[in-house]
Amino acid sequence: MSSDRTTSSDRTTSSDRTMSSDRTMSSERTMSSDRTAAGPRSGFSVPRGLIAGTLVATALVWGPYAVIPRSSLLLAQVETGLYLGLLLLTMCSRRAKVLLVRTLQRYTLNPLMRLLLAIGINPFGLAILETRGHASGKIRRVPVGNGRKGQDFWIIAEHGTRAGYVRNIAHDPRVRVRLRTGLRYRWVSGIATICPDDDPLARQRHIIAWHPLRALNAINVRVLGADLLTVHVQLHTTQAADPGRPAQSAATQLVTATGSRS
Fold it and tell me: Residue 126: which H helix or E strand, with range?
């Protein structure tokens, strides 16, 4: 009887050990497969299009220096160092680059562009996108590249979902775009859609279409950006909105868009 009990205990202990070993091996395999699926981790990453944009921007700096007599060597070196610094910063920390560029744009570039566009001066062929703040509910306006193609208006958000107007669109897709029609600028209402599955670089090439100002804007977006994201605005050009006029309801605009497509 004692030997039977001992044998039974040994079998139980052996079975427990086997099951424990199986669980451990299964857990290790699962963790290994998860690591493989996630891919190798690296502390450095370069967004698609950034290196090409940096090279083109650098060429645009040194081209005039090589052609124009008495050009400033110091200025060309400073601009080149700035582009290389942005490239390295993007590789090390995209979040840090977004904070730096957004601060620069918010307090210097965007106010200047809004002022120029307000008085009818548009040296870079930009447009103004108007959204409603997702937290404050206030009107927000930001200069964007003019990616109009008929009734479609395309935007390449250089900071992806970190961009303030992208978060505003996710909360309220009703927007307005200030566009130039003939010799005048007017506000056009529309419905914006975030397109995470769209290829932003391919969309950029489609938007440019050999347009020099749009090409210049695309280079700036690639150099200053960290995570490119496509945003589409369905314009309602037959219902131009005046500044200060309440926007249409989303349901009304969607019915209008559906009717125009059919």
Answer: strand 126-132
